[in-house]
Design brief:
single chain; five-stranded mixed sheet; Glutaredoxin; four-stranded mixed sheet; Immunoglobulin-like; alpha+beta; 3 domains
C-alpha cells in the first residue's frame, strides 16, 4: 500500500495538470492589514482573488491564467499595480507596499524579459517624476525610443507584442508605418498571440480613426431610455461629442464648462455625450446625468470601451471632445474643454 501511494503521489506530481500550474511564491513587505489582490480576466469578465499572505509578508498562490495570458498584483488602496505573465512555472514575487507598481515577478522567460524592460526602461523613464509639461514630454520621448528599441531587439517575445500594443495606445502620434514595420518584424507566433492580434487591431483603428478635416463616420447609439439616435440627423449645425463616464472625475469637473457652452451656443451647437459604461453601470450613469446636470443628448453603447463608436473613434482618454462642423467634418479633437471653448470663440459662424 505504501508503495502504491508513493507511486500515485509521484505520478500526480509529474502530471501535466500540475506542470502547467502558475505558482506565485514570494513576499511583499509592509502590507500590514492591506489585502494583496490578484486580478485577471476570464472569458471577458474581470476577476479578483485575494492572496493569503502570512504576517511576515510571505505567500504562495496558485494563479488562475487569464484570457490574454497576463494578470496583475494589486495592493488594496494603492494607485498602481504590477502586471506579469501568468504562465506555467514557479514565479518569484519580490516587492514592498510603498512601491506597488515596482513589485518584481520573475522565473519564466517572458516574465524575466518584462522585468528587464521595467528595470531598464519603464522605471527609469517614469513620467510621474516630471514637474513640468516639457519635462514630461522629454521623459515620455526617451521612454518611447527605448521601448521601440527593446521591441526590435526581442522580436520572438510576446512581451514585445504587449509593449507594442501599449505604445499604440499611449503614443498614437508615432508614424504608423514604423509601427506596422515593428509588427511585421515580430515572429509569426508572436503576431498570432493575443497581444499581437490586439496590436494589429489597434493599428487598423488608428488608420481609420476620425481625422481633422475629414467627415467622421456616422453612428446610431441609444439614449438612457433605449431610444436610438443617429449622428447624421444633426447635420446642419455644429456638434460637440463629449466622451465621458460616470466614474471619470475630470469629466465631471468639466461639466460646468460644457453647460456654459450649451447656454452660449445653443441651438447652433448640439452637445452629444457618449458615456463609456457597462450594462451594469446603467443606473449609475443615469444618476450621474441627473446629479451633475449633464448637458445635451446622452448616449451610451453600454459595452465599456469595446463598442464600435468608442473603439472605432479610438477614444482612450477621458474626457475626449470631438468638435464637428455642420457638414460632419472634424474640426478639433481635444481632452481639455478650455481648448474647445477657445476654438468655438474663433468660429465666426457661431
Amino acid at each position: 500500500m505504501k508503495t502504491l501511494l508513493t507511486l500515485g503521489l509521484a505520478t500526480l506530481l509529474a502530471s501535466p495538470v500540475l506542470a502547467q500550474t502558475c505558482q506565485l511564491t514570494g513576499s511583499v513587505s509592509g502590507l500590514g492589514d492591506k489585502p494583496l489582490l490578484y486580478w485577471y480576466t476570464r472569458q471577458g469578465t474581470r476577476h479578483t482573488d485575494t492572496v493569503r499572505v502570512a504576517a511576515n509578508g510571505q505567500f504562495t498562490h496558485v494563479a488562475t491564467p487569464g484570457d490574454d495570458g497576463m494578470a496583475d498584483l494589486y495592493i488594496a488602496g494603492s494607485s498602481s499595480y504590477a502586471s506579469f505573465w501568468a504562465e506555467p512555472g514557479k514565479l518569484l514575487v519580490q516587492g514592498n507596499s510603498a512601491q506597488p507598481g515596482k513589485i518584481r515577478v520573475t522565473g519564466t522567460p517572458e516574465n524575466n524579459l518584462l522585468d528587464e524592460h521595467n528595470r531598464t526602461v519603464a522605471w527609469k523613464y517614469d513620467v510621474g517624476a516630471a514637474k513640468t509639461k516639457p519635462e514630461f514630454n522629454a521623459i515620455q520621448q526617451r521612454y518611447n525610443q527605448a521601448t521601440i528599441q527593446f521591441i526590435k531587439v526581442h522580436p520572438a517575445a510576446r512581451t514585445s507584442a504587449h509593449l507594442l500594443y501599449w505604445q499604440l495606445l499611449m503614443n498614437p502620434g508615432y508614424p504608423l508605418a514604423q509601427y506596422e514595420q515593428l509588427l511585421k518584424q515580430l515572429a509569426p507566433r508572436v503576431q498570432q498571440s493575443f497581444q499581437g492580434r490586439q496590436a494589429a487591431k489597434k493599428l487598423l483603428v488608428l488608420r481609420n480613426q476620425p481625422t481633422v478635416g475629414r467627415p467622421v463616420p456616422d453612428f446610431t447609439v441609444s439614449d438612457t431610455a433605449g431610444v436610438e439616435h443617429s449622428l447624421a440627423t444633426y447635420r446642419g449645425k455644429y456638434v460637440l461629442l463629449d466622451f465621458w463616464g460616470h466614474w471619470c472625475r475630470p469629466c465631471i469637473e468639466s461639466m460646468p464648462k460644457l453647460k456654459a457652452l450649451h447656454a452660449q451656443y445653443a441651438p447652433k451647437l448640439a452637445i452629444i455625450g457618449i458615456a463609456m459604461e457597462n450594462k451594469a453601470d446603467l443606473p449609475k450613469w443615469k444618476h450621474a446625468i441627473r446629479q451633475h446636470g449633464v448637458p445635451g443628448l446622452q448616449l451610451s453603447e453600454l459595452q465599456a470601451g469595446e463598442g464600435p463608436v468608442i473603439s472605432g473613434y479610438n477614444v482612450e482618454e477621458y474626457p475626449t471632445y470631438l468638435l464637428l462642423d455642420p457638414k460632419g467634418v472634424l474640426v478639433m479633437r481635444a481632452n481639455d474643454a478650455d481648448e474647445i471653448t477657445k476654438k468655438l470663440a474663433m468660429l465666426g459662424a457661431l
